[in-house]
Amino acid sequence: MNELQIPQRPRVLVLGSGAREHALVWKLAQSPRRPQLFVAPGNPGMETLAERVALTVEDASGVRAWAATHGIDLVVIGPEAALAAGVADALRQAGIRVFGPDRAAARLETSKAFAKQVMQAAGVPTAPFRVFDDAAAAADYVRTHGAPVVVKADGLAAGKGVVVADSVDAALQALDEMMVQGRFGAAGRQVVLEEKLVGREASAMCFVDGTTVVPMLPARDYKRVGDGDRGPNTGGMGAFAPVPDAPPDLGTIVSERIVRPVLAELAKAGVVYRGVLYVGLMLTAEGPQVVEFNCRFGDPETQVVLPLLASDLLEVAWATAGGELAAVPVQWHEKTAVCVVLAAEGYPGAPRTGDPLLLPDPAQVAEGWLFHAGTGWRDGQLVTAGGRVLSAVATGWDVATARARAYRLANQVAFSGKLFRRDIAVL
Ligand code: AMP
Ligand code: GLY
After folding, report:
1. From the CA of 113, which ligand is nearest?
2. Is 218 in the pocket of ligand 1 (CB under 6 A)?
3. Per-residue pLDDT of the chain (427 residues; tens, 9 = 90+)
4. Helix, strand, or coil (residue 427)
5. Which of the listed CATH numbers 3.90.550.10, 3.30.1050.10, 3.40.190.290, 3.40.50.20 matches domain 11-102?
6. Which atom of ligand 2 is nearest to the CA of 296?
């Protein structure tokens, strides 16, 4: 087995500012390699673990210049906007090791039409689909084929660009908003129409170093704001891992039937994938089918998967970025993790911000962590500063224990207008 050539006290920059990135920084900080951690722009929760840097994550040349002058050994990219802006390309061109795919590979997330075409060419199980860039032709197709049908804006739309339409009218309205009224701008000029899949969802994230694929534990997230999956879609209101109703060989299915064929298809165009490939699955009666790809860690899935990772994330990320993943064993704790997202009143519409936050003493928290997202400082006081404020995460030997701990933690946090689901990980 090759020894990884990791420098002494490596200097690692994480890009992003959410609870996902707090979890990444928290896990990297546990590395026996004792990394020096930087985060841009980060949030108050990370300040004891990493030095915050005022960089814009989509500013490829700014990130590259800062990383080069500060001797950064590894950059870990959190958000898709940075991938879409070519931050990974810019860093690689400067010879800086980076965890996250180049822009060409990130098209698996930034263009749903591209993702479907790659899947079709690679023979990956996914819903039958058609791509349209003409609004009248798309509407004709819907009238002819009827409902249900799923309407998807091609480009990035902050999780709002998908409508599962159970009637022809709903589908036509979605098409009109996307293609005619331009609700998502250029991202909705092209749409994918696809067959509705029935089943439960699972998020299967994989470390991919170009050739080696290592699946993480499958997770499930809760996208709707209200209990019982009611109300509008959000960035995610909670998650748990692993998923007990996923097939036991899901990791093998995902790497052999989905990720490897996709990598082979990308390779035909000279595209190499390095980072996390997030496979969003529907567990249907005919087996797992791909609903979407994301080219980065999921949020809130990361907050439940990383506490279960027994291996050193720094080594895994270093090896993934350098094409050396086969040299690193990736091991997991046999536990369950549950994440309850604490959101601000008004989320996901127009959340109220600026409310003072009271957090429990960390010593009072058993096997639990509060990962910050929308928090900020005002006159030395911690206040709410975004829609999703905190992730309350806990682990336990079984779902019931982890769940009870996560909810106890959620209840130990106080701020006006605190909003959270009561049914996360209720199986
Ligand atoms: P996406 O952004 O593609 O993940 O879609 C967002 C959500 O829409 C998914 O998590 C699913 O809940 C739902 N969805 C997307 N595609 C389908 C499909 N073909 N059938 C049923 N639900 C879907
Ligand atoms: N949890 C879904 C996402 O990260 O996009």
Report:
1. 1
2. no
3. 458 999 999 999 999 999 999 999 999 999 999 999 999 999 999 999 999 999 999 999 999 999 999 999 999 999 999 999 999 999 999 999 999 999 999 999 999 999 999 999 999 999 999 999 999 999 999 999 999 999 999 998 877 789 999 999 999 999 999 998 988 888 888 999 999 999 999 999 999 999 999 999 999 999 999 999 999 889 899 999 999 999 999 999 999 999 999 999 999 999 999 999 999 999 999 999 999 999 999 999 999 999 999 999 999 999 999 999 999 999 999 999 999 999 999 999 999 999 999 999 877 777 799 999 999 999 999 999 999 999 999 999 999 999 999 999 999 999 999 999 999 999 8
4. coil
5. 3.40.50.20
6. 4
Q: How many residues does the chain have?
A: 427
In the block, tokens 């791509």 appear at: 131
Report yes or no: 282 and 199 within 8 Å, Cβ to Cβ: yes
CATH superfamily to which 198-327 belongs: ATP-grasp fold, B domain (3.30.470.20)
Answer whether 292 contacts ligand 2 (Cβ < 6 A).
no
Q: Residue 257 has what DSSP assignment?
A: I
Q: Which candidate, 38, 16, 160, places its Cα nearest to that of 100?
A: 16
Residue of the CA atom closest to atom 3 of ligand 2: 298
Contacts of residue 8, defined as CB under 8 A and 6 or more positions apart, other chains included, come to none
**Phi, psi (deg, nearest 5) at residue 205:** -90, 145
Our answer on whether the CB atom of 201 is closer than 6 Å to any ligand 1 atom is yes
Indicate the domain borders of the chain: 11-102, 134-189, 198-327, 336-411
Handedness of CA 346, 350, 353, 357 (dihedral sign): positive
Counting from 1 in the atom list of ligand 1, the atom nearest the Cα of 194 is: 19
Residue with CA nearest ligand 2 atom 2: 298
Read off the DSSP letter of residue 86.
T
Minimal CA–CA distance to 91: which of 80, 76, 111? 76
Residue whose CB lies within 8 A of the most ligand 1 atoms, among 111, 291, 296, 299, for a mutation test: 291
Contact 152, 177 (CB under 8 A): no
The amino acid present at 141, given as its one-letter code, is: Y
Ligand nearest to the CA of 283: 1
